[in-house]
From TrEMBL:
Residues 11-237 form the Peptidase S26 domain. Belongs to the peptidase S26 family. Its EC number is 3.4.21.89. InterPro entries: LexA/Signal_pep-like_sf, Pept_S26A_signal_pept_1, Pept_S26A_signal_pept_1_CS, Pept_S26A_signal_pept_1_Lys-AS, Peptidase_S26. Its main location: membrane. This is Signal peptidase I. One of its GO terms (molecular function) is signal peptidase activity. The keyword Transmembrane applies. Keywords: Hydrolase, Membrane, Protease, Transmembrane, Transmembrane helix. It catalyses: Cleavage of hydrophobic, N-terminal signal or leader sequences from secreted and periplasmic proteins. It is a single-pass type II membrane protein. The chain crosses the membrane at residues 17-37. PANTHER family: CHLOROPLAST PROCESSING PEPTIDASE (PTHR43390:SF1), SIGNAL PEPTIDASE I (PTHR43390).
Amino acid sequence: MAKKKTEGGVWETVKTIFWALLIAGVFRTLFFQPFWIPSGSMKDTLLIGDFLFVNKMAYGYSKYSCPFSACPIPGRILERAPTRGDVVVFRHPTKDVDFIKRLIGMPGDTIQVTDGLLYINGKPVQEKPDGDFSEVMAPQGPQQLMPRCSNAPVGEGDTCIKHRYIETLPNGVSHEILKITDGGYANNTPVFTVPEGEYFFMGDNRDNSEDSRFSQSVGGVGYVPLANLVGRADRIMFSSAGRSLFYFWTWRSDRFFKAIN
């Protein structure tokens, strides 16, 4: 009798775990996907160690909506067009990894950056200075990445500064961007013409972002097909500045449940 009770208890545990995993898988596939910010390419909108849920209902579903890209979906179903200025998680076109950037260019747009100023369809995008973004020059997050600074060289423990601007896109969406310099290829690009069915993304930390300004052949993102969009980032749920979320003294409580603009 004891053996039967033990076997019954084990079976109930197995069933509980199975259903819990199934429910979690359905929730992750259809509704929200967790995402940790691993790099500083979206500062200061998103910081290393921010944790958010990606809204997977925003643009419909593709094969990348499922874990391990396992959904047998050709193209996209329940499709909804993204909006310029959205902060989007997408699957890199050639690498099996998710990226998060801001949607800048729509299909058919021309995009160019000249002396650090963004041009969309030949017109300069409005931007205005908004002070400086300051942080401590120190290793950040699990990867212990060091920030880049406009006031370099900066010693560890000193203040690292980047210049902050408010950029307003043609559809009226305003958001913060950071700049370190106006030189280099990232700030003086050729004219990009976004193909139909694809999108152009840039990081808000303009001088520290591998994005659509760089081709896939040199490690960049290039144009991103609609099918590769995973979802929209709407709100930060939790944030930790330390190497581990268990380092509670590094939690950024002021960023908990913060809306993403």
